Amino acid sequence: MESVFEAFISNPALYSAGHLVGETLHFPTNTEEVQSLLKRIGVDGVRCQEYFIISFDSDILGLYDYLGEYENIDELNHLAHLLKELSPSERETLEAVMDSGQHCGSVQDLINLTQNLDCYDFHPGVDNEEMLGRLYVEDMESLEVPDNIKPYFDFEAYGRDISINENGHFEQIESPSPKGEMGLHGLNLDWKRFVTDQTADFVAWEKAAIRAGGSELPVTINMMYDFQGLNYHKFKDLIDVVSWDNYPTWHKEAEEVTALDTALQHDFMRSLMKKPFLLMESCPTSTNWQSVSKLKRPGLLKAASLQAVAHGSDSVQYFQIRQSRGASEKFHGAVIDHYGGKDTRVFREVTETGEALLDLAQIAGSTTKAQAAILHDCESRWAMEDAQGPRNMGLQYMNTVKKVYGGLRKLGVNVDFLDMEENLSDYRIVFAPMLYLFRAGIEEKIRKFVADGGTFVMTYWSGVVDENDLCFLGGTPHGLMDVFGLRSTELDALYDQDVNAGVGEGKTYEIRNFCDLVKTNGAETLLAYRDDFYAGYPALTKNVFGEGEAYYVCADFEQAFYDDFCRKLAEEKGLERAAAEIPEGLDVATREDEKYKYLFVQNYGAEPAAFPMDTETYQPMTGEYDGVVRRFETVVFRKEK
Fold first, then answer.
1. I want to staple 543 with a disulfide (CB 3.0 to 4.6 A). Which of 235, 314, 489, 523 is the partner?
2. Do 247 and 225 form a contact (C-beta atoms < 8 A)?
3. Radius of gyration (Cα) for the chain, nearest Å?
4. Which helix (H) or strand (E) holds 96?
5. Is the pLDDT score of 84 beyond 90?
6. How many angstroms separate the CA atoms of 55 and 77, rounded?
């Protein structure tokens, strides 16, 4: 039975003793399910006769605001059955009435409201007094205005009179700005969602206009590096192919650091639609808008171009083909510079890249298969970075994501990036770094994933708030304390100069920024804190739940921890790896089609690296391979499946 809303029901006797024992009940329900749940949480009608509702969740906007902790389950179920029968337009009307606060004081009021929605006329497109006046004159014909008078009729004044006489009003919600309210985090989050929804709606109308004009060409939009202004997941159903503009700051850091960061962005773009994407823009030499626009060193143009292909792109495209003579981009890099000839280093390297792409033409359309995934949810990140919590400068969220990604990629493990609306069941291991906000039923997905045999790794500061940025009550990580076998009690923020360590299994790993203090309830401690008043507290735990395992990383560990931890998990779970051992500085990725598996090996390190391959099994397709991969060299192998 499809759920209309859900409630987390707990045992108040155990809750007051410091133990959260409860389960989620989905409405509408039946007597058998209710009695079974109450029995499981110890509300047996003898020793404990009462239950306590910690939280509600529903897709019906605003419903949970009017439901309390001690609601009657039978009344809730009656309400759920009524809500289930509502049409989409009736549901919109109900949401509008609840938003006004009328007739919502109790569950009985909501039941009565749901049964009497025909008393209301809801016009969602009417958002100002002029539109209200036109509605009454032109659609409802409540006032007869001759057609020859309408051009002179003051619809706004008439709409204002209607609004006054009927005790109605329009309200403008200001965006989070000095004019509006910036301290309500739920509203800040909703504003960002609104900006995404408005932009997505604009894209939908643009696409409709193109289709109406007779074109059936694929539609895309230019996405950008780690762009936080929009939730790109909301566009994947509107476009035909993902494309993005790639402008790394090469040579600012060690090349392997920049290469890893760029690979992460490629994999994120590929993961949006789980199919090949397009590298829409890249620069053949140097940009003109970065703080320092440094030339690409010889060989890097080809390496950076083919890295996109290695991680799922079916194109390599440059901005710009010919360097403009004037305006803001006259010094931006181009395939053909102001000199205009073909005898330049850049033109020669672009030509070499094109020749390599011709050799790799059969790879177009092939896909990347991943057994590991990282939950990297835009809305959770928005909320966390607005949280005003333990660290307001230097949350290190993306660095944490990169450490997880780096630990997997150094093993040659392909990685997908997911948001909370996606399915977890296609993966063997899923990581959730700093998943601060829970939405889209993610706690139930995680529970099922682990119970069915998956391995889930969650870090500190996860499951703290709901989709409205309201803190969960009853302990965190919300709804998963039994899955992880622990409860987070306090989160210590470290100053930049502070250092702690996790120790155990003969290893010591440096810790900075965050230390989560947890109370275990069944979880095994694998590493413990070395210093401070919480020395000896768990720093890394493991809990067996159902057929799977749930790990909790309590602290912001150094990269070496993730390298060792990911290797251990990959070996234990038998993850498919591109190679048994990958020398430092190499980026190794795979794509495959029905007949072949393609292996890309690139060297972003400072020195040549030995990479022995059985060339009878893996046939080189491009690059000069003699068992060694040189700096900025790309070698692609093909193996028949």
1. 523
2. yes
3. 29
4. helix 88-100
5. yes
6. 16
